[in-house]
Structures are given as structure tokens and as C-alpha cells.
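The records we work with from here on pair a chain with its fold. Taken together, the C-alpha cells spell out the fold as the letters spell out the chain. To see the layout at work, look at the sequence and C-alpha cells printed below.
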Amino acid sequence: MKFIEVLSFRNKLCLLLFVPIFGILYFASSGILEKYRFVTAMQQVEMLAKMSINVSALVHETQRERGTTAVYMTSQGQQFSQRLVQQHQATDQRLQQLSSFFSGTSADANGFSAINFGVEFQQAVNNISQAIDKISVIRQKALGLQHEISPIIAFYSQLNAELLALLDKIPNLSIDARVAMMSNSYVSFLRAK
């Protein structure tokens, strides 16, 4: 205590003010850090929401392509030949949008990188990208009536299942329970379609 007694009044006042100022700085920085984490999490949610829009649009088009392909192949190319070409174009547009989103080059991707969401999410994106790369071969087989219908339709069903499985991962990535619940509802709605 002699240490305090030898201090000048000015230094005693500074020492007295040090504790509250330090406390204020600590709580202020804690609050700022918490807000920063919240903003970062919401930016990720926004990015995942944009991704889910692209994925669900592609699921819709691949479902339509699967049905159109089934009719075309069942009729031995007598029905839906023009509609199938148009559907390929519509699906290609959605494929391009999703591919550019995954690569981070689309305007709404905003620096998207699947690895930021974990290895499992990255693997799911890679699986989808590999399946998308095979779609042109599957189309050629279907247009040429070179294969039975079952493996062709199974390809589209598997692609849709992988796309929906990617969306299944979104609720686990959110720190907000309300966002997770809404994401689960959205994925359930897409599965019911």
C-alpha cells in the first residue's frame, strides 16, 4: 500500500480510472466481436440462400428434363423431340448459373467457396460438379436411343438426389435456429415436389 501513498494525486486519479476504462474497453470490444461474428454468419446464410435458389432452379429443370427424356425414349423419339431440345437449353441455362456460382464468378456468388462450409460440403459440391459434367454424355445416349431408359432416368434421379442432399446440409451450417428451421422446411418442400 505504500506504493499508492507515494503516488501523486494525478497518478492516483489515473490509477483509479484505469479499472473502469479497462472494463469499458473489454466489454465494448467483446460486443464488437460478437456483432462481427453475427454479420459474418448472416453473410454466409445469405450466400447459402442464393446457392439454394440456384440449386432448386436446377432441380426443377432436371426434373422436367427427366420426364421429357422418359417420354422421348419410351416413344422411340416419336414424341417430344423438339420439346426435349428446348428443355436441354433451359437446363443448360440453370447448369451454367449454378456452375458460375460454385466457381465464384457469378454476380450473386460474392466470393463463394464451398470449402468455407467444411470438407463434407465441399465433397458434396464436387460430386454435383462431376455429375453435371456427365450430363452431355447422358443426353447423347438418350437422343440416340442408345441405352435403355432405366439408367438414363436413374442418372437424373441421382443428380436430383445429390442436389437436394446439398441443400440438406444448409441447416447444419447455420448458427441461428430460426434459419435452420426455415431451411429444413424449404428442403422438405423441394423434396415433396
Remarks:
- The mean pLDDT is 86.
- Residues 46-192 form one domain.
- The chain has one domain: 46-192.
